[in-house]
Design brief:
The protein contains twelve helices and four strands. It is mainly alpha-helical and 283 residues long. It has a four-stranded antiparallel β-sheet.
C-alpha cells in the first residue's frame, strides 16, 4: 500500500474551496466531489490526476454496449463489464484501508468499500445512459436501476450480483437487526453519498488515534456540505482539542454551546465546561 501524505496548506485550501463550490452547485457532480475528497488525503493527486480519473470513467462507459435494454439488462451488462472483465469488487481487507474510500485509488486498484464501488458503477452507468442511482441501505451501499416498480438492485462489492428481495432484507437485518423499510430503497442524494463517504473516513481514523489529521479534514469537508448534522461542529472542536489546538477548540465548543442552549440547556452547560477545561490546558 502506497503511503498517503496530505497536501500542503495552500493546496489543501484550494481543494477545499473547490469542494465547497461543487457542493453548492445546482447539480453537484458526484465524481468530482469524490475526487476532491481524495485530493485532501493524497498530496500526489494533482490536476492531471483528477482529469485522468474522469477519463478512466469515460473510458469504462465507452466499453459498455449501447443501451442494452431494461433495468435488468443494464444491471447484467454492468456486472459483466465492471465485475467480470474489469474485476471491480471488494474484500474484507478493504475495510482496513483508507484508499478504499478514495475514488482515484479505487479506479486504480479496482478494490474498495461498497459505497465507492457503487460510485464507480453509478458514474460509468450514468455516462452510458443507464437509469441508475445509489441506494443507501444501512450498513451496505448498493446500486439501483429503473423505476420503483421495476427496480433491480445490484451489489458492486460482490462484483455486481443482482439482489433478490430476501437478499436486501438480509443485508438490512444484518446491519440493523430491523426489517427492510421500503423508504430505504429510494435513490440517494449525491451529497448524502459524499457525507456517508466522509463518515466512513472518520470511522477509519477514529480507530487510529495517530491519524486524527484525517478525521479533522474529513469533518471539515463535511461542514462544507450545504446540509450537515449540527453535531459536526462539536466533533471538530473535540478533534482540535485532541490535537493540541486548545484555544480554537474552546472557541468552537462555546459556539456550539450557544446553538445547543436553545433546545437543551444542561447539554449546553456540559459543553461550556468542556470549553473551560480546554482553556485550562493552556496554563
Amino acid at each position: 500500500m502506497r503511503p498517503l501524505h496530505p497536501p500542503g496548506p495552500e493546496r489543501s485550501a484550494e481543494w477545499r474551496r473547490r469542494f465547497g463550490d461543487e457542493a453548492r452547485a445546482e447539480r453537484p457532480d458526484l465524481s468530482a466531489l469524490c475526487l476532491l475528497v481524495g485530493a485532501q488525503a493524497d498530496g500526489e493527486l494533482d490536476e492531471a490526476g483528477l482529469d485522468a480519473a474522469q477519463i478512466e470513467l469515460d473510458r469504462l462507459a465507452g466499453e459498455l454496449p449501447f443501451r442494452p435494454g431494461g433495468p435488468r439488462s443494464w444491471a447484467t451488462a454492468l456486472a459483466e463489464h465492471l465485475g467480470d472483465r474489469c474485476g471491480f469488487r471488494g474484500t474484507p481487507g478493504d475495510y482496513q484501508r483508507l484508499d478504499s474510500s478514495l475514488l482515484h485509488e479505487v479506479l486504480l486498484r479496482r478494490r474498495g468499500l461498497p459505497i465507492l464501488l457503487s460510485v464507480v458503477w453509478m458514474e460509468v452507468a450514468r455516462r452510458a445512459g443507464a437509469p441508475v442511482y445509489g441506494v443507501a441501505l444501512p450498513g451496505h451501499f448498493v446500486v439501483g436501476f429503473g423505476p420503483p416498480e421495476q427496480q433491480v438492485l445490484v451489489d458492486p462489492f460482490d462484483g455486481g450480483r443482482v439482489l433478490t428481495g430476501p437478499d436486501a432484507e438480509l443485508l438490512v437485518a444484518g446491519a440493523t437487526g430491523a426489517p427492510l423499510d421500503p423508504s430505504m430503497l429510494s435513490p440517494a442524494d449525491p451529497l448524502d453519498v459524499v457525507l456517508r463517504i466522509l463518515n466512513n473516513i472518520r470511522a477509519w481514523a477514529a480507530a487510529r488515534p495517530e491519524r486524527s489529521d484525517v478525521a479533522l479534514w474529513a469533518v471539515e469537508l463535511s461542514l462544507l456540505l450545504p446540509s450537515h448534522p449540527a453535531r459536526l461542529r462539536y466533533d471538530r472542536a473535540q478533534l482540535l482539542v485532541e490535537r493540541g489546538d486548545f484555544l480554537t477548540g474552546a472557541l468552537e465548543l462555546d459556539a456550539y454551546a450557544e446553538v445547543v442552549a436553545a433546545v437543551d440547556g444542561p447539554a449546553a452547560d456540559r459543553v461550556r465546561r468542556q470549553a473551560r477545561a480546554a482553556r485550562a490546558m493552556l496554563n
